Amino acid sequence: MPRRIESLFLNGPEGRLEALLEEPEFDAPVEAAVVCHPHPQFGGTMHNKVVYRLARGLRKSGCVVLRFNYRGVNLSEGEYANGIGETEDARVALRELQARYPDLPPAAAGFSFGSRVALRLTSQEDLIRRVIAVGFPARMEERDFVYAVRVPKIFVHSTNDEFGPRAQLTEFFETLQEPKELHWVNAADHFFKDNLDGFETVIENIGRRRALLTRA
């Protein structure tokens, strides 16, 4: 049976939000994840190559994935709202997954700016079981909301990320409460240049280990 792929529009706080729902290639889904894309003011969309690989890695592990464009991106209505409005957009996507897959554990994931959105959403939503933060921009000082995340926090980072240098990301990670994980991917830059395949494999492996992760 071919996997389900559906283009749809969600009813967002500032108008409709363009979205893409994809089920796993094989078998029934065992987890439901909202995937958040990079900064909309710097060309970020749900079709970003890292976001695509993030979503595909999760699907390979048995996850149904809902990607979406924030307000004002491509066919989504509204205007950029400093990360706060974008978190509300992500909340709408989460509610859509809840309605469609009420028996599956929800997760959040995101790349770069999207990792901040996913973490902020998780800090506000008790139902999310884990969060995957890819390319977290550790150079940004406003990040207190991360300390409010009590579920497993899984960071995936390039060894040569210009927006979150290794030493800086490591220092921040060490201040966070358990449960947490940090996975390094040998790559040339923030966008996992020269090793997107390796990045996707890490995501797939993380996905398959979901049963090992529990709330703190």
Overview of the molecule:
- With 216 residues, the protein is an alpha/beta fold.
- It has a single domain, classed as Alpha/Beta hydrolase fold, catalytic domain (Rossmann fold).
- Helix content is 29%, strand content 24%.
- The protein is built from 5 helices and 8 strands; from the N terminus they run βββαβαβαββαβα.
- The protein has helices at 49-60, 84-100, 113-124, 166-174, 196-208, and strands at residues 5-12, 15-22, 31-36, 63-68, 106-111, 130-134, 153-158, 180-185.
- An 8-stranded mixed beta sheet has the order 1-2-4-3-5-6-7-8, sandwiched between helices.
- Strand 3 (31-36), helix 1 and strand 4 form a beta-alpha-beta unit.
- Helix 2 (84-100) crosses helix 3 (113-124).
- The longest helix has 17 residues, at 84-100.
- It is globular and about 40 Å long.
- The chain starts with a strand and ends in an 8-residue tail after the last helix.
- Residues 211-216 have low confidence and may be disordered.
In short:
With 216 residues, the chain is of the alpha/beta class. It is built from 5 helices and 8 strands, in the order E-E-E-H-E-H-E-H-E-E-H-E-H.
Q: Tags for this entry?
A:
216 residues; alpha/beta; Rossmann fold; 8-stranded mixed beta sheet; disordered C terminus
Q: Secondary-structure element sequence?
A: EEEHEHEHEEHEH
Secondary structure category: alpha/beta
The total domain count is: 1
Beta strands, count: 8
- By CATH, the topology is Rossmann fold
Largest beta-sheet details: 8 strands, mixed
- CATH-defined architecture: 3-Layer(aba) Sandwich
